[in-house]
Amino acid sequence: MQSLQNRFEFIYLFDVENGNPNGDPDAGNMPRIDAETSFGLVTDVCLKRKIRNYIEILKKDTPPYCIYVKEKAILTKQQEKAYLGLKTENNNPSVDEARKWMCQNFFDVRTFGAVMSLKEFSCGQVRGPVQLNFGRSVEPVLPNELTITRMAVATEREAKDQKGDNRTIGKKTFVPYGLYRTEGYISAYFSEDTGFNESDLDLLWEALLNMYDHDHSASRGKMNARKLIVFKHESPLGNAPAHKLFDLVRTERNDDPVIPPRYFNQYTITIDRQNNPKGVEIIEML
User: Fold this and answer.
1) Whole-number average pLDDT of the chain
2) What is the 3-state secondary structure (H, E, C) of the chain?
3) What is the pLDDT of residue 21?
4) Confidence of residue 157 (pLDDT cuts 50, 70, 90)
5) pTM of the prediction?
6) How large is the average pLDDT for residues 8-22?
């Protein structure tokens, strides 16, 4: 299938209710925040993990939709597959051939890129056409920490130490509510190099719209995709700077801004279509 013929940017809005959208290991797994402003943060790595997991569920990790960076994967074993798939009686594949094979068979390699220049079974490096910024809450958030109790202990020794009182104490960290926004970029130029095509693009949109429905856990609370706004350029090189397109979308409170937000319907999202640059189509997917 032909590579992309258009440049894209997109804005993705998602929210969390009584959950931890992205814990920070350096802060006791508290929800990530910008220390200077208290705006919540979700890393691009976290968002890509959700996309990868959705594609793995949907396509059952079969070519050409295998996932290279999947949970508990050993990357050299993943790269060895390229050498086994290309090896002939007389020749071992070159790094360039192995790199191309990885792009053809692994969705996340041809989408996000990967550094695969490990000493064993090197497959070079790939710069992916799809890149994401950090997600950032539209208002400051206040991470909370609650003490919880478990009416059981893990071992008999713990039971003896606690003299029959089998309650143990733990912590649960969460954000009462936060609406997050992230921006993304899709390069037609880099898609030509990796083989990322229209079918892959459709899968990416599907993953963004549905990935939180397959990622529920006690720690993440209630998370939902709320809005996906896509900017499609007529030209492969683009018809307007990305930041001008992102500025067209505004998220504002429609009630008393002094009251801490707790629901998505407390916000109004507007798109300034009148100032949309020529040659760019705005597509609302949610």
Assistant:
1) 93
2) CCECCCCEEEEEEEEEEEECCCEEHHHCCEECECCCCCEEEECHHHHHHHHHHHHHHHHCCCCCCECCCCCCCCHHHHHHHHHHHHCCCCCCCCHHHHHHHHHHHEHHHHHHEEEECCCCCCCEEEECCEEECCEEEEEECCCEEEEEEECCCCCHHHHHHCCCCCCEEEEEEEEEEEEEEEEEEECHHHHHHHCCEHHHHHHHHHHHHHHHHHCCCCCCCEEEEEEEEEEEECCCCCCCCHHHHHCCEEEEECCCCCCCCCCHHHEEEEECHHHCCCCEEEEECC
3) 96
4) confident
5) 0.93
6) 97
- Written as six digits, the tokens of 142 are 């206040």
Which tokens is 76 given? 């050299």
